[in-house]
Amino acid sequence: MDKIEHIGIAVKDLEKSNELFSKLFGQPHYKIEEVASEGVKTSFFKTGPNKIELLEATNADSPIAKFIEKKGEGIHHIAFAVTDIESEIARLENEGFTILNTTPKKGADNKLVAFLHPKTTNGVLIELCQEIEHK
Ligand code: ZN
Prior knowledge:
By secondary structure, the protein is α+β, with helices and mostly antiparallel strands. It has helices at about 15-25, 65-70, 85-95; strands at about 5-10, 30-35, 40-45, 50-55, 75-80, 105, 110-115, 125-130. Strands 2-3-4-1-5-8-7-6 form an eight-stranded mixed sheet. The longest helix has 12 residues, at about 15-25. The structure holds zinc ion. The site of zinc ion has 6 residues, from strand 1 and strand 5.
């Protein structure tokens, strides 16, 4: 596993939170992207070399809607960059971690992603992400 790629924060109202985090970081978000398959709308901020992803649910069945219902707004996941997501999934499964999707799926920001079940990672939802290469 490489560096932290981004930190995901669950929010109720993306528009309001974009304003709030723009003030916090002193610069606006650089992109908004909807991932329909996950029922989320995301926005991304850069803070130096780091990235923050805000996530808003687009429907009631969205994992973000369920998260906010249970825990309220706040830090939702930590994403780590990997260079070979398939082999990293195999390695982690072998180590006894539960992978929520063993087949990587397309996430926001041009990434292939997979999530680890928080039950096997001390309550922290971990996202693996690999940059999709353009050919
Ligand atoms: Zn993420």
